[in-house]
TrEMBL record:
Keyword hit for Glycoprotein: yes
Biased composition, class Pro residues, residue ranges: 1012-1026
Name of the protein in question: Nidogen 2
SMART domains found in the cross-reference section: EGF (SM00181), EGF_CA (SM00179), G2F (SM00682), LY (SM00135), NIDO (SM00539), TY (SM00211)
Pfam families: EGF_3, EGF_CA, G2F, Ldl_recept_b, NIDO, Thyroglobulin_1
Subcellular location: Secreted, Extracellular space, Extracellular matrix, Basement membrane
Keyword field: Basement membrane, Calcium, Cell adhesion, Disulfide bond, EGF-like domain, Extracellular matrix, Glycoprotein, Repeat, Secreted, Signal
Domain NIDO per the UniProt entry, residue ranges: 119-286
Sequence segments annotated as region (Disordered): 310-422, 860-883, 914-955, 995-1027
Domain (EGF-like) ranges: 709-750, 751-793, 812-850
Length: 1321
């Protein structure tokens, strides 16, 4: 009756008797409960209005289309960043910036490189009328009111009144399908909607999936090698890459709603708003925002939210940020600092009264409905009032529930222990309780051993690790630091408050480089703190490059210490105090250090530059303390004051916990730290303060640059991987050895997954989590670490009596009060845990029960699901990863095939590969049912080869690594050659390189004989040039780690004679230019941050021209043949510079009004520079004279991403290729005569003009494309064998071409006579 009757009509009938009134009341209550409990999925009519009648724009049909910029009337906050425009894309996403081509993101998981709101990220194709995509930004009151109602229902405490709403709708859109794979297009189409509401401070996003809206749940990769795989759609949010330190970018925070196909199917079946198919998220805040917060009406979320990580760069963010606490709980929170990112142990989200969420749920407490019935939904027979935004437990169940009292993590050294939260009872002897408990905390690192001495015990790091024993890190691996900076700094007479702003540091231990960045520094104090390099010097001292008879600070202090420093500035006598506290290592083995600064600093003018010379400082060591004192000088250059000199005195002491029970020899009483390069800067636009220092530690009076220390390990100029140790041998000889936890040849190292390879120390009832260079163990639910800090034991009930009359206090609470189990299961509370058990007649794990019996997941299924969910890597699964195949019974299929590489092999019942069964793609796989034939054991060479050639345990091919060659007997072949670089060398019987035998590509190889000579490694010879022969005109192109040469036959691309001109290991070559007078090629290296050149003569070696720390991101490069000058753009500080061709005479031409400069060319004949700026808001092409005069805008209308630029010497026009408009256009220098040469390019990056043809590098085709200027047709194409992005492109000739040095007489220069030129030009 309730389902089909109008309850209000029934309840309005007048009863005639008391019994009738009772019956009527029961009927009314039943009907009311039905009306509350029964919620159906939304219909299409329930979606927000969309279509042309609603004012929507329509996205063009296609497989990979992006909308024109959708300018917002007012900007919105996404995470903590401000965006004033949006783009809607075919593939189910909205972004705050123009999107790259789809192959760079559509098959990948989160995080993405760019900001993304993804209601259904998949390979969607609307070609041929298969669906429409609508979008608009609106201020319609009805839409604003509906968004406000949804937000207030999902976040009752939010003070949110939207001013604008963005609505994007994908209606009946189809998945991309290759025609060769299907007989015809599929009839399956999807409909879904994303709604972004925002005001001046906050943004919220709704995802809507109508009842019949999802009919496919993933799409197949375009390059799946005929293997039947389908990638489930990704739903969630990603901040995109963020800038950190000085030179780097890293992935920002991200949040996933789905993890597999089933979770995608659930999108329209469940929701987090109480209405199936409706999902609501808090996505941004102006003041403080760490990661996405979901609405949680009813406490049910389909999948556990994945937090990713945020601006901490190196660790996971707390998924539900803890911005505010009730004052009653503040003291408790301070007693339990949060240092990890595990979502199971984080506080409740911000918003609302958190005191209620921290109270234990009493099983006897009566449940009464909330006054606001809109905030209450029923699951099963119990009503769950919404008093706060509950947390989600990371239990391994299909559906996750939110217990009201999440446990906390209590870090202590390297051990981790979880405590269920105590009831809110005031205990007089609380301090005693925690003192008693802390006595049993594990003292040593898991990578250390404990030695018992007569007077006590000490911890010592195991071989391969270093530290003080309480904290141990893998030797040779780079280290990361994160923390907060707070305090009050008075600049001149103006006090400035620093409220827990972020500090991050990255230290390359192998050469002593330490980079420190402090973000969100207000402008007045940002300039003034530039001289305060001592803030970052701490990290340089902790992880300095060690010279003989010395040790870096971390070996003494470990990760727990306190540094007090006092800085006195002269001549003003301003004083500043710095207190830095090391709190230990977090879950990712990253050091956590908080900094408090207080005092006065001198005022520095905005825009000032601070220079600090290299210096040395002596540290004196005493038991448990290290001290130093020094005077530093620095100069300040500003437009207002010119150049000024200042100094400051630094006094500091570092206290730490020492262990002397072993009576070991004391460390040297004094050590000297040398800071060779000190670079400081404040980036006003980003409000980031940066310090970069190179640090070496040695005995006092040792010169780090002296002749006795010329070994590359001590000089820091070795070529070992950043995750490898440099081991000095005699003279200049050294050896590269991968750091503990890494594997490789020392020049290229990759992480060992201890969890997969069975190398972990985790025991029963624990889970192994892989970390870079290490791993950690975490106990399963209901278990905690025992006294050894490694073994997981069941949580037990603890009773403590504080006096004879005091009552007992229990640590246990009743989790069952929060109804964590499935509706068809019963909850059994235990001591320290709880158990969910399916009711009779139902089967499952208690979190999910069904009437169909479900067997436990097998080893194969668990292995497969871990990889698919990303648990193996601590994040989303990587593209190309191998996923094991299981049969219907959960066993490993005997034949396993890698979908990306095409290799197949047989496995045993444990999933381990059977030796000798691997077959390459294109060959018939082995018959895995046949028994193994007796085979000899693998040799050292074969083990080495297979570890590199096959895939890692997680399924990742090892890219670019040398694959050793073994003979028929499994022994190393005497001559080894690297397939990527072309270098060859001789090896001994153990595969070690024989000194002096390495030959570069194209040269005569050594005659190698077997040898057992001991292995030594010498510095690799520098790469040399191998130019093509018998060619007059050659296209030079940059492709990552090499410069390629592509000869021209007339105007045709001669692919048969293409070759690698120069291999540059570890480089990213971007800009490229050619000097026809001296036959030299010039290039910019984005990785090494250098500008280089090399003669195009056989055997020539590269020469570094510019290699300074302020060269950040060099891109476009141009050479003025006539004036012997070169010009380049640096896209990080956004400047244009010039120098002589030998690197001297460097000067800045432009450092203002540049946002994203990229391409630059010089026309020698007119002495004119042209460059592009792909500023998203105002792209333009500008010009000036070569001396920086007469700057003006040539083109600013109708352009988008002008990546490529060249000069048509025959017409005197400037031409550009635009990756935004997809057009190739030309215009005269005065802005007249503009014309489109080609209207539909793919994704051009760089371009050059020669004999009526344009040649450009294309990022979609990963090749060189030729376009005829007259016919506007693409006439030729060259795709290198190695498929990767091509960057810069240039013309190399045996003589200077016309236009390179002949001045073209034109109307602009009527009186300039022609000049003579070399060669045929």
């Amino acid at each position: 009756i309730c389902l089909f009757s109008n309850s209000s009509q029934i309840c309005s009938l007048a009863p005639s008797s008391t019994m009738e009134r009772g019956v009527m009341l029961a009927v009314c209550l039943l009907c009311w409960s039905c009306s509350v409990c029964v919620v159906t999925a939304i219909k299409r009519a329930d979606m927000f209005p969309y279509g042309t009648l609603s004012g929507d724009l329509i996205l063009a049909e296609g497989d990979d289309e992006t909308s024109r910029v959708l300018s917002l009337p007012k900007p919105l906050y996404f995470y903590g960043s401000l965006f004033s425009q949006l783009y809607v894309a075919t593939n189910g996403i909205i972004s705050g910036q123009d999107l790259p081509m789809e192959k760079q993101y559509v098959d990948d998981g989160f995080p993405t490189d760019f900001p993304v709101v993804a209601p259904f990220l998949a390979d969607i194709d609307t070609s041929g009328g298969r669906g429409q995509i609508y979008y608009r930004v609106t201020e319609t009151p009805s839409v604003l009111n509906r968004v406000a109602q949804e937000v207030h229902r999902g976040f009752p405490d939010a003070k949110f009144t939207p001013t604008h709403v963005v609505v994007a709708t994908w209606e009946n859109v189809a998945a991309y399908e290759e025609q060769t794979r299907t007989a015809g297009p599929s009839n399956k189409v999807n409909t879904f909607q994303a709604v972004i509401g925002y005001d001046e401070t906050d943004s919220y996003v709704l995802f809507l999936y109508p009842e019949d809206g999802l009919n496919y749940f993933g799409t197949r990769p375009k390059e799946s090698y005929n293997v039947e795989i389908e990638l489930p759609a990704r739903v969630g949010f990603s901040r995109g890459e963020v800038t950190y330190l000085i030179f780097s970018r890293t992935e920002g925070p991200h949040y996933s709603v789905t993890s597999d196909e089933q979770s995608v199917k659930n999108l329209y079946q469940v929701g987090n708003t109480g209405i199936p198919g409706v999902w609501l998220f808090h996505t941004g805040n102006r003041y403080s925002f760490d990661n996405i917060v979901p609405a949680s009406i009813g406490g049910l979320l389909d999948t556990p939210p994945t937090g990713g990580h945020g601006l901490s760069l190196y660790g996971e963010f707390e998924e539900y940020p803890d911005n505010t606490f009730d004052s009653d709980n503040q003291e408790e929170e301070d007693d339990y600092p949060h240092t990890g990112g595990d979502p199971e142990f984080q506080p409740a989200p911000a918003g609302g009264d958190h005191s209620e969420s921290l109270q234990p749920a009493s099983p006897d407490a009566p449940s009464s409905p909330s006054e606001d019935s809109g905030n209450q939904l029923s699951y099963g027979s119990e009503d769950v009032p919404l008093t706060s935004e509950p947390r989600y437990n990371s239990e391994p169940a299909e559906r996750q529930y939110a217990p009201p009292n999440p446990p906390e993590r209590v870090p202590e050294g390297d051990a981790q222990r979880t405590l269920k939260r105590q009831p809110q009872v005031t205990l007089k002897h609380t301090a005693f309780f925690f003192t008693f408990f802390s006595r049993f905390q594990q003292q040593c690192s898991q990578n250390a051993f404990c030695s018992d001495y007569a007077t006590g015990f000490c911890c010592h790091c195991r071989p391969g690790f270093y530290g003080n024993g309480r904290h141990c890190l893998p030797e040779g691996a780079p280290q990361r630091v994160s923390g907060k900076v707070s305090g009050t700094v008075t600049v001149g007479s103006t006090p400035v408050e620093l409220n827990n702003i972020d500090l991050h540091a990255y230290i390359v231990v192998g050469d002593g480089r330490a980079y420190t960045a402090i973000s969100q520094v207000p402008e007045p104090v940002g300039w003034a703190l530039m001289p305060l390099a001592p803030i970052g010097e701490l990290f340089g001292w902790l992880f300095a490059l060690e010279l003989p008879n010395s040790q870096a600070g971390f070996k003494i202090t470990g990760a727990e210490f306190t540094r007090h420093a006092e800085v006195i500035f002269y001549p003003g006598n301003q004083r500043l105090s710095i207190v830095q506290t090391g709190h230990g290592l977090d879950d990712h083995n990253h050091l956590t250090v908080d900094t408090v600064v207080s005092g006065n600093v001198p005022f520095l003018p905005p825009g000032a530059e601070v220079t600090m010379d290299p210096f040395k400082e002596t540290y004196q060591y005493y038991p448990s303390v290290a001290t130093s004192s020094s005077v530093r000088e620095f100069s300040v250059v500003s437009a207002e004051r010119g150049s000024e000199s200042f100094s400051f005195q630094l006094k500091q002491n570092i206290t730490y916990r020492d262990c002397r029970h072993d009576n070991r020899a004391a460390v040297l009483e004094t050590l000297q730290i040398t800071m060779e390069r000190v670079f400081v800067m404040y980036v006003k636009e980003e409000r980031i303060l940066r310090y970069a220092i190179t640090n070496k530690i040695s005995p006092v009076r040792v010169d780090p640059t002296g002749p006795e220390l010329v070994n590359p390990c001590y000089a820091g100029n070795h070529d070992c991987d950043t995750t490898a140790q440099c081991i000095p041998l005699e003279g200049q000889v050294f050896q590269c050895q991968c750091a503990t936890g890494y594997r490789g040849d020392g020049h290229n190292c990759y992480d060992i997954n201890e969890c997969d390879e069975g190398l972990s120390s985790c025991g029963a009832h624990s889970q192994c989590v892989n970390l870079p260079g290490s791993h950690r163990c975490q106990c399963q639910s209901g278990y905690e670490f025992g006294f050894d800090g490694r073994t997981c034991v069941a949580m037990t009930q603890c009773v403590f009596f504080f006096s004879s009359s005091a009552p007992s206090f229990f640590l246990d609470i009743d989790e069952c009060s929060s109804t964590p189990c499935h509706i068809s299961a019963r909850c059994i509370n235990g001591l320290g845990s709880f158990l969910c058990q399916c009711q009779p007649g139902f089967y499952g794990d208690g979190f999910y029960c069904s009437q169909t019996e479900v067997r436990p997941r097998s080893q194969c299924e668990q292995h497969r699901d871990r990889l698919q969910s990303g648990m193996e890597q601590g994040g989303p699964p990587s593209p190309g990863a191998f996923i094991p195949q299981c049969d219907s019974d959960g066993r490993y299929q005997p034949l396993q095939c890698h979908g990306s590489t095409g290799h197949c092999w047989c496995v045993d019942f444990r999933g381990q590969e059977r030796t000798g069964t691997r077959t390459p793609p294109g060959t018939a796989p082995k018959d895995c049912d046949r028994p193994d034939e007796p085979v000899r054991p693998k040799t050292h060479c074969e083990h080495h080869r297979d570890s590199v050639q096959t895939t890692s345990p997680g399924g990742y091919p090892i890219v670019g690594a040398h694959v050793p060659q073994c003979d028929a007997n499994g022994q190393y072949t005497p001559l080894q050659c690297h397939g990527s670089t072309g270098h060859c060398w001789c090896v001994d019987s153990r595969g070690q390189e024989r000194a002096g035998t390495r030959t570069p590509p194209g040269t005569q190889r050594k005659d190698c004989l077997p040898s057992v000579a001991p292995p030594t490694v010498r510095p690799l010879p520098r790469p040399d040039v191998t130019p093509p022969t018998n060619t007059d005109i050659t296209l030079l192109y940059a492709q990552g780690q090499k410069i390629g040469a592509l000869p021209l036959n007339g105007t045709r691309l001669d692919a048969t004679r293409s070759k690698t001109l120069l291999t540059l290991h570890g480089s990213i070559v971007v800009g490229i230019a050619y000097d026809c007078k001296e036959n030299q090629v010039y290039w910019t290296d984005l990785s090494a941050r250098t500008i280089n050149r090399a003669s195009m003569a056989t055997g020539a070696e590269p020469e570094i021209l510019i290699n300074t720390i302020d060269l950040v991101s060099p891109e476009g490069l141009a050479v003025d043949v006539k004036r012997r000058l070169m010009f380049w753009v640096d896209s990080n500080p956004d400047i244009i510079e010039s120098a002589n061709l030998d690197g001297s005479g460097r000067r800045t031409l432009f450092d203002t009004d540049l946002v994203n400069p990229r391409a630059i060319i010089v026309v020698s004949s007119t002495g004119t520079l042209y460059w592009t700026d792909w500023n998203r808001e105002a792209p333009k092409i500008e010009s000036s004279s070569v001396d920086g005069q007469n700057r003006r805008v040539v083109v600013s209308d109708g352009i988008g991403l002008p990546n490529a630029l060249t000069y048509d010497s025959s017409s005197g026009q400037v031409c550009w290729a635009d990756a935004g408009t997809k057009r190739l256009e030309c215009v005269s220098p005065d802005g007249s005569g503009r014309r489109v040469v080609h209207p539909s390019l793919n994704y051009p990056f760089s371009m050059v003009y020669y004999r009526n043809h344009f040649y450009y590098s294309d990022w979609r085709r990963d090749g060189v494309i030729a376009v005829n200027k007259d016919s506007s047709q693409i006439t030729d194409e060259y795709l290198p064998d190695q498929r990767s992005h091509l960057y810069g492109i240039a013309i190399a000739t045996t003589h200077c071409l016309s236009g390179m040095c002949v001045v073209k007489v034109s109307r602009e220069l009527p009186d300039l006579p022609p000049q003579r030129c070399r060669g045929s030009g």
